[in-house]
Amino acid sequence: MRLLPRRLLSRIMLLIAILLAVSIYASLKIFDYFDREPRATAAALQAVTIVNYTRASLIASHENRRLALLSELSGREGVRVYAADFLEDIEALPADPFINLVAFKIRERLGEETIITVNHYDIPGLWISFNVGQDDFWVVIPRIQVDRPFPWHWLGWGAVVGLLSLIGAYLLAARINRPLTMLVHAAERLRNGEPAPKLPEDSVEELREVTHTFNEMAESLARLDAERTLLLAGVSHDIRTPLARLRLAVEMLPTEADYMKQGMIEDISDMDNIIHQFLDFVRGVEGEHSRMMDINDLLNALAERQLRAGRELILSLGPKYFIPIRPLAMQRLLDNLVGNAYNYGKGKVEVRSQVMADKIVISVMDNGPGIPQEHADRLLRPFERMDSARTKHEGGSGLGLAICNRIAKLHGGQLMLLNRPEGGLEARLSLPILAYT
Fold it and tell me: Among 97, 129, 146, 271, which one has the highest count of C-beta atoms within 10 angstroms of its own C-beta?
């Protein structure tokens, strides 16, 4: 999700670059099309002038002097004059729109009988026929005079314009991308149950309303969460007071009512546990700071607490690896998972930690009846319980696993419930490593 704005910026820049390249190419082609007519007219006029001057010079000269004059004319300005024999093979003009347009305009001025070809006898140039009396001649004009070289300078200016446009587009896209990135990060914090920071509303006009609406939404959620916490905390506190009086009254019942006292005390304890779970869920753990810890230290402390309670927890620990952890929150998560395993299993609970390439995996395994796999995700939601062998234990509210799942997401991890092939349930917690390196 965090990569979305960067990918969006790259796609925007790529799209702009493609559009610029297409527009520059189209502009060159359009300019070339509309520039072809005046260039062809100028080239044709130049060719006609050369032919007319050459023809006039030959007419004005004496017949005995024509060969010398032809030789003299051929050495000037790169224009050559040859005697022609129209029985020779003459190739048609190439399929070049510009050359054909020049030829058309030359024939308009010199007559339709004028023969025009290019590169005749492998001599480069534009060959134009004319006659003086009974004699036929060729005037050869170098193509450099009638054909424009490739406009490299246009490409240079086009590249400069394209580069400046890309720089401007990048600055504009980056300005749009900055509030988008902040919006994505704030939404990510909300998704993980953390309070979202107030976003600045001085961004581009198109995103200002979105940012303002998001800030209002985040404030409304924060107010709702605070009101919910205050309400449930107040209700829980008010309920605990009469519960304490009720328990005291039960303890003072006469000895003859012992068979009733034990059941009532257990019911009161279950109610107190449910209230405690409510408080844990609404209190949250977002305010606790993370610190670098080895998860094995928490697991060893967990095993010691269970041993003091008369339970033997089987540990199988991987190598040490330090990652950022919220200690109290992670302790609550592990206590809930191990407590569930003892409550719903058959007394044997094993905890295993493994360090993998991109994550640390903690597995809490019991030997109980397991759960239907299709209901595994549902049990991670608040107030979800099942009418099966694993939910016959009283005193729960369906918030224990929801609290665990909330803490796992707060650490960027994932909690899954998996049935073991040999029987029992595995609660598998995965905590990412790459996010912290």
Answer: 146
